[in-house]
Amino acid sequence: ERYLLSIERENLAFEKLIREQGILMIPNDYDVTRESMTKFRTLCLKTDSRATTTADEERSKVIVDMREFNAELPTILYKHGMDLITVTLEVGDYILSPDVCVERKALDDLTQSLNSGRIFKQIEQMLRHYSQTVLLIESSEKFRHKKVNGGPFQGELSRRSRDTRALFTILIRTNPKMRILWAGSPKISANLFEEIKLNQPNPNVDTAVGIRSDDVGVQFGDNEDEGNVQGSQSTSKKNPGKKAQLNPIMKRQLSNIYNLGSGDVENLMKSTIFNTPQDLFKSGKEQFKNAGLSENQAISLNEFFNTDFRYRRN
Hints:
- By secondary structure, the protein is an alpha/beta fold.
- It is about 45% helix and about 10% strand.
- It has two domains: about 40-210, Rossmann fold, CATH 3.40.50; about 230-305, no CATH class.
- A hairpin with a 4-residue loop joins strand 3 and strand 4 (about 100-105).
- The radius of gyration is 28 Å and the shape is elongated.
- The strands form two sheets. The protein has a six-stranded mixed sheet with strand order 2-1-3-4-5-6, sandwiched between helices. Strands 7-8 form a two-stranded antiparallel ribbon.
- The chain has helices at about 1-25, 40-45, 75-80, 105-115, 120-130, 155-160, 160-175, 185-195, 205-210, 235-240, 250-255, 260-270, 275-280, 285-290, 295-305, and strands at about 60-65, 85, 95, 100-105, 130-140, 180-185, 220, 245.
């Protein structure tokens, strides 16, 4: 009986100790020290004639989507001396300047986005609103065991075999203006961001928040000939000084038509003969030829638009 009582007292003592440790407040020291702005960026700001503020007043600012704070990168950017502006972004994850937008993808997220097609829409929206679109592919410690032949990204991309690689290739070829950054860790990503922002102005918060992902109107940029692009008059009035580009969503849909390549679709959309898909569907062979299509393509397209939906049996 004495032995059982001693065992019971010992168990009660351990239970009390565990409860006390569970509610015991232990001070934790967090490293919140920040680096100052790099001397190179300070020099760039001093020599930049476009700068409206002095180098001492100007500090690097990055607009960050609030959902990105589940990752390690925002914390590292803060420690590198950048001021983070947290908002809810519909297009992009990081806005480094008025022209630079970054979409960050971890390796597993990249594979899922490629297979679901989400990354194609995201890049398309970024290209519509920003002249410099960057896809940041970031690795981390959990992917180290997936290295193949020393490459930190090959293991994950080869897991889904050729399909994932093919989709990634299609993404690159479909969006030639997109830039890709490969980072082995969040620290490397932060260093890349610093280099990009060396001679770049800080982004505008109101402009970044005002960009909506459901905006599928005409695309704007400086690389298209204004005389060859058919944009609506209302769009031109709302955006004076900007040159309308072809609607990428409409271009992609028309590219699915048999016997029409990407260049043929561009010729049709830039032609003064057609302004809407309805104009295209109601036209005939001669109009197609005048728009730049070959004889065979004009005949094929005319037959396609005049094909009966129903099969008729003799």
